[in-house]
Each structure stands twice: as C-alpha cells, then as structure tokens.
Amino acid sequence: GDSGGDDTGGGDGGGDLISVGFAQVGAESGWRTANTTSIKDALTKEEGFDLKFSDAQQKQENQIQAIRSYIAQGVDYIAFSPVVESGWDAVLEEAKTADIPVILTDRAVDTEDDSLYVTFIGSDFVEEGRRIGAYVSETLATEPIKVVELQGTTGSAPAIDRKTGFEEATADNPNVEIIASQTGNFTRAEGKTVMEGFLQAYPDIDVVYAHNDDMGLGAIEAIEAAGKVPGEDIKIVTIDGVKDGMQALADGKITYIVECNPLLGPDLAEIIKTLDSGGTVEKRIVTKDEEFDQEAAKAALPDRQY
Ligand code: AHR
C-alpha cells in the first residue's frame, strides 16, 4: 500500500525485498504489452522484488509525476522507458539527490550528464532502421520505388533513430524515394488513419515503412479498405515482430520484419540484483534482434511467446 513502510533499507513487512518503481510509457502497442508482462513476470516477490508499476498513457508529464512519487516513497531503484528523449534532467537530478539509482529500459534519454542514470538496456534502434533500409534497398528497390513512412511517437528515441537508420541505409540507392513521412504514434488506429490520408494523396505508393508492427497492421486495414492488396500492390516493412505482425508476415501481408526484443524483464531483474549486491554493470547493454522474411516467420510463429 502507499501508507508508508516502504522506506529504503528494507522497510517493514516486505522482509528484504528490493523496491523498484517502474514508469512505463503506456499500452500503445503489442510490443509494449509484451514488455510490461515481461517486467511484471520478472520482478516478482518470489524473486525478491516489490514492484510498483505505473502506465503514463504516452504522456511525459504523467511519467515525471510517477517518478516523483517513487522518489517520495523512497524506492530502492527507479526504472523507466522514456516516452520522449528530451526534458528529463530535472526529475533525474531529483532522483540522484535522493540517492536512487535510475535504470533506463528500452528507450534512451537525451542528456549531457550521463551520471543521471546507471545503465541503459535496450535495442539499437538506429541499427533496426538500417536493417530495414538495407532490405528495402537491396530487395525491393531494384527499380524506382515510392516509400511512405509511418513514424513512431514524435520525439521518441525509436522514431528518431529508426528514421535515421533507414535514411542512412537507403541514401546511396537513388531508386528509393520517401514521398511522405508522418507520425502514427506507434498505434494501430493512428497508423490506419495516417495511411488512409497517404492513399488519398498518393495513388502510386509502392512501399510502407512502419516504425512498428501495430502501425503496419493499421496500414493493412487502410490498404484493404481502399481495394488494394497488401503485400502485392503495396509492400509493408515493419519493426517489432510481435505475434500479430509475424502472423501478417506469414500470411504475406507484411513483407519483412526486423525484430525489437521486448523481453527486458529478466535482464532488468539481473541488473538490479547485481547493483544491489554492490556490483557494477555496463553503461549500455544492447539487446539482440533478429529479422524475418515470410518463411522465417512461418517457422518462428509456433514458438513465439508474444
Ligand atoms: O520503444 C520501443 C517501441 O515502442 C516499439 O517498437 C513500439 O512498438 C513501442 O510502442
């Protein structure tokens, strides 16, 4: 409960549980839901944790408020996945003043003072964008193609980095033309709406590059509603590799997926245990991502956890 007793140094009632405040972005995508499940499954009482979890509904002010409340409660550790990159220095300084170590999971912050967090664990989003870009350039752009881009949440690390990586990897191929780029906020509904607009404005789209599966799945709905065949008339490439995305890939509606691994819970638990026993961890821990074409998706689907 929140009526005290959870102070640092072990607190009462919880034995020597490690208290962790986790400020999640929201529940915007299948990826995010899988990430939340992974964290909750790993940071259990049985494993020695007292997890306090909040969902910021994709609003930075909610996340800052959650972090402030974890500081006020005197948790042992704070972990969070910043909805956008910038604007965190003030609240992270408050955590530092309170001597509460901060662990960044999944997304980075943009700060000049890297003493404000202990470590950052998550995927290399620029690399994800590069891998999708390389696939598009080598496989889909043997002749001139028009690409539309569905960007993630404006100002978020994955949206910025996946755009950069894709542009880098396609820069030397004059056949790749990005004709429009707009945010769909990592959600299926907004991906659909933005794609409807693109389809009206541009009759000759060849490829959709969606920064996550959910927006790609929204784009499928818009393309089908416009009487076109996803995977044939318009090819779709996405990042994540959640079950619905992998199913659409196996069905031929999506053409290629670069994975973003959401299962960060076990690593987060291990990092905290290491720190708690006086150990040190790397400043940057990069998680491994695979990539899938349609055949690989069919093979992987039966064992896919999320
Ligand atoms: O930060 C990771 C991204 O956030 C995932 O790719 C996306 O699906 C999620 O919303």
TrEMBL record:
It comes from the Bacteria. InterPro entries: Peripla_BP_I, SBP_2_dom. Residues 21-258 form the Periplasmic binding protein domain. This is Periplasmic binding protein/LacI transcriptional regulator. Belongs to the bacterial solute-binding protein 2 family. It is found in: Cell envelope. GO terms for cellular component: cell envelope. It holds the Pfam family Peripla_BP_4. Keywords: Signal. GO terms for molecular function: carbohydrate binding.
